[in-house]
Amino acid sequence: MRRAAALVLLAAALSGPGAGARSCPALSLGCKCAAERAKAGGGPGAPRRRVVCSGGGLPAPPEPRLLPEGTVTLLLSNNKITVLENGSFFGLRALEKLDLKNNLISTVQPGAFLGLPELKRLDLSNNRIGCLSASVFQGLPNLLRLNMSGNIFSSLPPGVFDELPSLKVVDFGTEYLTCDCNLRWVLRWARERPAQISERTACAFPRQLRGVALRAARDGQLRCAGAPELHTHHLIPSLRQVVFQGDRLPFQCTATYLDNSTQIRWFHNREPVQEDEQTGVIVEESLIHDCTFITSELILSNIHISANGEWECAVSTSQGNVSKKVEIVVLETSASYCPAERVTNNRGDFRWPRTLAGITAYQPCLQHPFAAGPAGVGLAGEKQAWRRCDRTGRWEDGDYSHCLYTNDITRVLYTFVLMPINASNALTLAHQLRVYTAEAANFSDMVDVLYVAQMIEKFIGYVDQIKQLTDVIVEMASNIMLVDDHILWMSQKEEKACTSIVRSLERIAAHTLGSNSQHMAVNSRNIAFEAYVVKPESYVGLSCVAFQRWDGGPPGRLPVAEQGAEPTPDQQLRLRCTTGRPNISLTSFHIKNSIALASIQLPPSLFASPTPATPGADCKLQLLVFRNGKLFCSTGNSSRLADDGKRRSVATPVIYAGTYGCGVGNLSEPVAVSLRHPGEGTDPVAAYWNFEVLGGMGGWSDEGCQLATREPNVTSLHCRHLSNVAVLMELSGFPSEAQGAVEVLHPAMYTCTAVLLLCLFTTIITYIVHHGTILIPRKGWHMLLNLCFHIAMTAAVFAGGITLTGYRAVCQAVGIILHYSSLSTLLWMAVKARVLYKELTWKTPQQPDRDTSQAAPRPMLRFYLIAGGIPLIICGITAAVNIQNYHDNNPYCWLVWRPSLGAFYVPVAFILLVTWIYFLCAGLSLQCRPSHQKDIPEPLEPAPRLGGTSDLLTDSGSISVTLNSGPPCPEGDGVYSLRVQFWALVATHALYVALWTFGATAVSQRWYLSIVFSCLYGITAVALGLFIFVHHCLRRRDVLSSWFSCCPSYRNALPMQAYVHPGLGPEDGSQVFIGCEPEAARSGASSSSSPSSAGSAGGRCKLTNLQVAQSQVESRPAPHPEPDAADGKPLRHTSNLHGRRSHRGRTKPCRDGKHHRLKMLRGPSEQPSSESGSLHNSHSESYPSGRTSPASGGRAGPRLPQDGDAVPSPSEGSDGGRRMPDFAEARRRSGSRDNLRPGGSAEREAKRRSYPLNVGSHNGGLKGSKYDINLASADSVAGMKTGLWKSETTV
């Protein structure tokens, strides 16, 4: 048996391709035939063939007669077959698999698969089949698998699978498959038959079922309710078209074809379009494609001006209608444009471009990623605002309703309006809304008021169920009275918002009072509410007084309630009612510490009417008092009303009385009303608010009301009806409530502030005028002046403008200045604390042996940027965000509470924290320093040592002395030690913080607390001023010397005073004139460049021999230091030669100049010494250590600075840093050259004759008729002859 099978296979192989061609006629069509293995278990029957005709581009299936006998598999995929006609495969009775995927089949005729009784698999996927008939699958009794996926049909007709009894799996998923009521039969068919719907058959429409497998859908989900959701609906063109008159424009509309009821209709501006060839309107007949799409064309062959507008393609089906629109703009020969325009409103900032007439422009809305409200709930598509440019080239009003509000409060209020309100959430929503109305003073849009009014109307419907709503509603209405007058006026004009609020308040009693609630009272900032249940038969009259706690202000001024803060009980309006007709006077109100604002007396005959009330019936009586008339805005032409065209305005509170449940006719007795106003106006009129006049807008009417009596600040009137009553006055030139009498502070605050300012400005002027003679570092000079200036600014502005709340612009300026100066003062203290800490912790840098370079100067600008720039930035941002943050919404001119947290109190807390950290570190550094360095005060001026004996006088009687002073820039305070400076700064800081705290508390508190803190403020101000003045002026010897130097008698009393001309720099040589007046010395210094400069000082600068000898004796240092009288600490010997601070020292760094280069070239030399063997340091190097100072006796040998020595730190803000002298530098300085200018020979001869005392030097002879002595080093005169002098000072 095996041998027979092998022979059969060998014969088939030997037959070759020639045999295949003879048995495959379809080979001419590009098909391939092959033998197919027989099924397992099958008999030897007829041969099985596999024909592959894929990818050959066949336009139709091959004829069955061209296919070999026994064809069981026919692959016709990836061809161009478009139609399957009836009997296309008839005769292929052995065919089991037919593959027609990836063709262009759009039509399958009924009976196309007849004659295929053995067909088991049919693949029609990825074609263009749009519709199928019920008989399309006839003749396929054994079909097991059917794949129709990837076609374009959206539904299947019922019974399409009835001819397939053996079907097991079917897949008909398409991108248009619509799972609606038309596919319910498929689910029933699948349940009744063993067939299974493939998982890949998923719904594409509607959207809620997209991606859901059809076999997993429920019958209830497949419904046809509402407008149909078409998978295809296109209008070409889809965008706005701008055409010229006479052009041709075609339109094409394509939509989904559902059934025979599907039609396309055209509309123009909502009017049906009729075909009219004369006007150029042509409508083509609709075409249906593949049972899936329907297309209609509209052609405008000759466009006319009347074609402007919207053209609409409407698709009507049995389920509903859908449409697409496009706008057409027809231009004439001369078209106009709307200019570019910028519109800013509560919805954003919109820039409308230059737009052609007739065009509608669109602008995207400002996006708010976390916005609330329905417009920002993540809807797909960008929201846009639109605006139309009309035919005349003018912009029409735009539509911005799709855009969100830019203001956060407005967006939140808009969200409240959209929320559904019921009895379960009304109270919660009301409390939340009340929180936002607390900021009503900051409302900047009228819609804010509109939304609050709408919410109040909604809440009124629930007050009968929730009694607590009454308190919240009254408080919200009270907060609305804080809104700006103009905004309230606009909201009233827009939608009568103010009238709505007042009407809602008047209806509260009708809803809340009943058998269980006989009385209700609510107090708030600007509104007082009182309601009673009254029995008319027992009514004997009612008198009520509205009052408020008095804060002790001027008697004629109404208390101004704070805006933008939480109400306090003392600031609320209250009503006090008594029965009967007591005598009530507003001027003599009997409640202590209170002021009466309004009163009303209802007569006993109030309920007496021609038709008596039903016995036992209850009547509800309600009273309202409004602090002012802000809710009563007259928006129309009121020239015939009581306000006389707004010439008069409400000058008093408004009081209301009304009844519910009982009729009140014409009163036989009038209602007596007394109202307080802040001052005397002109032309007063009694009036009531009539809601019916001016087209329902309301207005003031004087009908039935008249004035009764007038007292200072109180006006009485009588009215014959119950309503909202007030007194109107002409207020021009009359201070309103907001601009009443200016409050004044306690007298102690003004007096003590003046003392503080006097001390501060005295200090400032002293340090500015005598800045050249006061031994203070450059940075210390800047910090002290700025600190004093900002303290003075804070105190002066606080005392002079903190209570100017009646002048908005002035009050805002006061708030901004106080904000800036308070922050700047604290920052200058922080900067000074940092500089002090750096000086305490600075160590001498290790430099190479010959490195004489100095540290790079660091400018003072960084201090100004910190202490002045940061407050400017904070104040600028606060004012730019909302200038109303500095509005007079408090009894004082300062920031509103909430903005002040981030703009002031948080920065102040941070600054204080940093400052205290520096204080702590500086204090620890002081404690850790060696004891002998803690309290060594720096001398008023280092005393230069004289290197010779008496070789001081020249032949002119002056003393020629060269002082090698080193760097002339002062690095530390010349009077106070770092310990004293530290404690002085701590004391100043503590006093300033206490001053600010006491001042703020004094103006924010009332009664005795205000007086107590005012006195504390005064004490602190005096203490701060005197401390600064005493510490920085009176206790400084250099300041006292500067003061006394202005007195001629003091100058003459000094036997030997030194004057250093401030105009000469150290690199040129400084001249010190001893025993002469500064004027003479100044004249001598000014002429020092001339040959006769030696004698230019005049006779007042000359010294006798006795004076020379005396000066030489006095110039020698004392053998022992003198104890300080103040603290008992030793003081260094100080010379009568007063050093100076160069003017240029504050503006440019100290430079060695060319002397530095000369010293570098000279190289090292032997260390010189004086006659006593001591090392002489330079002017600036003589006092850092007490052992090398002149007071040490001059016997200390040369030594390096030890670790425990107090070494001054480099000046951070001065022109150069100080260096400890090294020995190499001392040797280089020892050989400085003589740069004296020789005078004329005749002049020198005259000087010799005038002063015969020419004592020779022990170490050398005369030079140029002068004896030159280097006081800065220990070199002898011989060394002076050969060395190069760095600088010299002629005395």
SS content category: alpha+beta
- Radius of gyration from CA coordinates: 53 Å
Query: What is the residue-averaged pLDDT?
Result: 74
**Shape annotation:** extended
Q: What oligomeric state is this?
A: single chain
Binned strand content: 15-25%
The tally of beta strands, per DSSP, is 47
Name the helicity range: 25-40%
* N-C termini distance: 144 Å
Total count of helical runs of at least 4 residues:
25
User: Unreliable stretches, pLDDT < 50, 5 or more residues?
Assistant: 1-22, 369-380, 552-569, 733-741, 934-970, 1055-1291
Report the major sheet.
8 strands, mixed
Strand order of the largest sheet: 1-2-3-5-7-8-9-10
Family: Belongs to the G-protein coupled receptor 2 family. Adhesion G-protein coupled receptor (ADGR) subfamily.
Biased composition (Low complexity): 1081-1095, 1163-1182
GO molecular function, one term: G protein-coupled receptor activity
Protein name: Adhesion G protein-coupled receptor A2
Question: What order do the helices and strands come in, and which of them pair?
Answer:
Layout: H1 2-23, E1 32-35, E2 49-52, E3 71-75, E4 83-84, E5 97-99, E6 107-108, E7 121-123, E8 145-147, E9 169-171, H2 184-192, E10 196-197, E11 233-236, E12 241-244, E13 249-256, E14 263-268, E15 271-272, E16 281-283, E17 287-289, E18 293-300, E19 309-316, E20 321-331, E21 337-338, E22 341-345, E23 348-352, E24 355-356, E25 360-364, E26 384-388, H3 408-418, H4 426-437, H5 446-460, H6 469-480, H7 485-495, H8 497-506, H9 508-512, E27 519-523, E28 527-534, E29 542-549, E30 574-579, E31 594-602, E32 619-626, E33 649-650, E34 654-660, E35 671-676, E36 682-690, E37 699-701, E38 705-711, E39 714-719, E40 724-730, H10 747-769, H11 778-801, H12 808-841, H13 861-881, H14 897-928, H15 931-934, E41 960-962, H16 978-1004, H17 1008-1034, H18 1037-1044, H19 1048-1053, E42 1058-1060, E43 1072-1074, H20 1078-1086, H21 1105-1115, E44 1122-1123, E45 1130-1131, H22 1154-1162, H23 1223-1230, H24 1241-1250, E46 1269-1270, H25 1277-1282, E47 1289-1290
Parallel strand pairs: 2-3, 3-5, 4-6, 5-7, 7-8, 8-9, 9-10, 12-20, 41-46
Antiparallel strand pairs: 1-2, 11-13, 13-18, 14-15, 14-19, 16-18, 17-18, 19-20, 21-24, 22-23, 25-26, 27-28, 28-32, 29-30, 29-31, 31-35, 32-34, 33-40, 34-40, 35-39, 36-37, 36-40, 38-39, 41-47, 42-43, 44-45
Helix pairs in contact: 3-5, 4-6, 5-6, 5-7, 5-8, 10-11, 10-17, 11-12, 12-13, 12-14, 12-16, 14-16, 16-17
Subcellular location: Membrane
Signal peptide: 1-20
Keywords: Disulfide bond, G-protein coupled receptor, Glycoprotein, Immunoglobulin domain, Leucine-rich repeat, Membrane, Receptor, Repeat, Signal, Transducer, Transmembrane, Transmembrane helix
